[in-house]
Amino acid sequence: MSKLKKEFHMKSRKKRLKNKCKQNKEEIEKALLANKEKFGDDVNYILSLLKQMPTSSNKYICLKTNEEIEKVFNEVKKELIYLSKGVNVNRVIPILLYAIDKIYFDPDYNDLKDKGIAIKNLIATICLYGDKSTSSKSNVEDIGFENLIKKVISLESLRKYHWLYKLNNKNFTMELQLSDYGVQLDDENWRYINSNFILPDNTYGLYQRCVDTNNNLILKDAKKYFYSIEEVIKGEVPSNIEYYKGTYFEHFDGVEDDGFKKFWLGLRIRFVLWMELCIQKNKREGISYVSELEFENYLSRYDEAEYYKENLVCTDDYLDKKYLENYNKIVNRPFVPLFGGKYLFSTSYIMIDSINSYIESFVFGYNGTKTLSRYEDKLFEQTFSKPFEKHVIELFNKFGYAAGGVTEGGTWQIYSENSMINEEIKNEYFKNHNIGEIDCLAINEAEKKIYVVECKVLNLPTDFSSYRNRITDINGKFKNQLQKKTNFIKTRYAEYCINPILLLDKGFVVRQYETETNPDNLRIMTLEILNKELKCSELQSEKSSRS
Q1: Regions in the chain scoring below 50 on pLDDT
Q2: Is 332 in contact with 368 (CB distance < 8 Å)?
Q3: What structural domains and CATH numbers belong to the chain?
Q4: What pTM, to 2 d.p., does this model score?
């Protein structure tokens, strides 16, 4: 081929590619416009479906064994995947994203918060398996959305029991009733569950410990929030910044540490994107979307932009086929690429949720932030562990107990409102058995009652692997630690009624310790359950004193 012909073919190819790109852009813009026209109605349709769904049904299947649950769980998952293949990604994902915003932000939909995780999982499933063609003329009402939502709700409702049965490798004396609306339990099985298990608290998205403090800072003064981050990046120590006083941020290091530097740079990018895309550009209304080029321009203003882009965009590779076992991935990377990656979609809630998750991931060392510093243990202790222990001590004080931690040297540090009393309680047993610290020792002298409390702030499981690790720790080293400390207290306070407790700040699915191998009645509790027990005990004491 002559040089002239080669040049001609090259020019023709470039022209065809240019025309194709122009055509694709026009198709995308047309689809965006068409979606926008029906957007509000489609969101309302999804929310109304959720509102109208009952919580129980007379039509259900009974599940009694691990094998039955495993089989049904996988069947529901397959059905969910199959149904997702008939859903257009570009059309439906923005609707679901904004539905999540309404569920968590709009008080009219507070009763739907228990469905939030299910909808997040539905988004990811459709992203992985849905139809990715540019245009779709199908109405949301016509694509079997009701069945799709039923399947994802059933899957999420069954998940915790699936994990529980899978881990224990034996049948329980309980029966699950699975309908289209989730797991149901009759009165007998509900009593059995409550007597033998700790189940997740009904906080619906508020599991993260960072949420309240961070949201308050953002909503109080978004400008101060931004300028405080900027001060840190310029070299100021967080503990010297007035806006951080009395918050966990004052325990963070500044940019002199590489790990903390990456954290602060990542926090700034997430916050700026929320401000510019969700607040300034979209006025916090509806879905927020930005072209790939515009997104790149936003990032290019900041240091290490490429590193943070990777941790912001929720690609199929990141979701992978195991996503249905991890509902948090859509939060970790809050921008969903649609229309072949040409546009990135998010919402105000997803972005704020992502900021909170990013902070907590840094402290706990999970979700792959890659920003951990060498001081993470110290930060965790200052930020969550010690404040939790203090809160537990204050709770016992409230109910008339002398309470405080026991040091490694055997000193009981009894706290009150205005002072701290040190009492030496070590004996020969303490010296010879390496007892270590006791997080909280609480004694009611009048009733001769003692609580020995091992406090645990645990990163919450989002997949079976992390769940298994938590349960292994609870049944292994945590139980052994508590037993060792209980043995010591028995030698020191033999005439007292002793209550040994492994206390969790947040609940998740865990079985109580078996009674036949637990002569000292070691128990697992959450703060909420402990508070109820102390309140009930106080009422009984008052009743007894009156009679």
Answers
A1: 16-23, 203-204, 373-375
A2: yes
A3: 35-198 (no CATH), 211-374 (no CATH), 384-546 (3.40.91)
A4: 0.86
